[in-house]
Structures are given as structure tokens and as C-alpha cells.
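Hi R.,

Here's the chain you asked about this morning:
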Amino acid sequence: MFRLVDTRDPDAVQREVEAICSAMYPAGDHGFVARAFGWARDCFEGRHLGYLPIDARYHDLEHTMQGTIGLAQLLQGRQAAGAAPPVNAAEFQLGILAILFHDTGYLKRSDDTEGTGAKYTAIHVDRSAAFAEEFLGAKGFADADVFAIQNMIRCTGVQVDLPALKFRSETERTIGYALGTADLLGQMAADDYLEKLVVLYDEFAEAEKFPGAPLPASFMFESADALMRSTQGFWEHFVLPKINDDFHGLHVFLNDPYPDGPNSFVRRIENNLHRLQQQLAAKPAI
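And here is the predicted structure, written out as C-alpha cells:
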């Protein structure tokens, strides 16, 4: 059921999400996905008034595409499995908007010329929620829908108190947890995840020097090599408990076929980690 999509090509991701949306909601708004992707691309590519193009090199448009395809496929798999409560078309749209805007907090305003957006790593979730409110409010979205989108975005925060988020419904909470799941799995399953770890380290190193928002200690590494050597533990001790427990095991809806088939996202992550261990074994620790 799930197709592998080149997330370096936003047009390919848009086409796949359009196909998923049409299959799930044949009577729905068939122009929604194109509009939402257009808005997100305008923001990331520097066509939103008052903002610069994204210059964070890890949390870029491709990173957003990785999470977006993961969320759409997870919700598709969940619907196919007949899980309750069902997600209706309007709720699906809120989820897609949330994942498309979940890292807009890395965008810089036009007069912000120092460093890159990576300096906002520690506060990017709150900045993303504020940006979504500003942007979608101007598009005429209801305050309650914007608030739901903001809560979904907050599900991606490393230190968020998930039970404290005041969702309007259990369905919206489920979408938020699905979004958090897709954000983690999408980036770690990427073909170039290992190569991008050096870029991720550079973002953390820049953010560590930013005086307005100190990084949590778990984000601080003495070198890119140290970050790479911590990645297996990050998967085992943070990501797996997060997706299995905090996010209620929603990743199983990416199993193909459901429920016992292989999960292509998890399989690609395990392949990446195996390749990483081989690389680390071939060189001394720095």
C-alpha cells in the first residue's frame, strides 16, 4: 500500500499526499493539499513577506517533506485498519497543515541576518506555533482550528508534557501523536540520515552559542563524532519509548500489511543504524 517517495522532490511528495487524501476522502476538497503545500513552500523558499528563505541545513524543506509523507501514510494505514476514533477530512487537513508548519520556527525574519535559523533550535517549537497562528490566522482559519494545529506542532517538542496538551478531542490528540511519530521516523529513515548527522551537529553547535535560548544538556555534544556515537542510544532510549509509549504505538499503522507486516520506516532506520555502527567501528573515537 505504501509507496517510497523521494522526499528531496516536494512535487513528488505533494502528488502522493494528494493521492492519499483523495483515496481516503473521495468527496473532500481536492484542492486542499496543493494549497497547503503551496503555502509551506512559499514560506520555506522565501516568498512569504517579512521572512527569509530557510537557511537551517538539517531542518529544511526536505525534513518537512519526510515527516509529511510519514504522517499521511500513517493516517492512511490507520483508516485502512478501521481504527477508532476515525479521522475525518477536516481533521486530516489540520494534521497536514501542522506537519507542514511544524518547523517554521527555524525561519528568520527579513531583518534577522545573524547566523542561521538553527540558532532557534531550543525555542523553535514555540516559534513554529506562533508562526502557524500568524500565517493561518491571516488565511481565515478559525481560532479553535489554529489552536488544534498548535497543539499538534507541540507534540514534536522533546520536553513537551503531552498529557497536559488540551486537545479538543481524542481524534485530534491521535493526529498530534501520529505527527510526532512521523517527525521522528521520517528523518531517521532518510537515505542520507548518516551524512546529515554532521549537519545536525552544526545546528546544535550554533544553537548552543545563542544567548536567548539555551539548549537542553541532551543536545550538547563536544563533536560531530560524539553525536554520531550517541545515535544508537537516541534510538533505543528516546525514540523507541517515545513512539511505543508516549505516542501510543501508532507507528504500527505503517506496517505493510497491517498488523504484522514489515514497517519500511523502522527497517530503513535499522539499516541506517547498522551502517553507522560499521562506520564507527572502522575509526577511532575522537
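One quick note: The two ends are 43 Å apart (CA to CA).

Cheers,
M.
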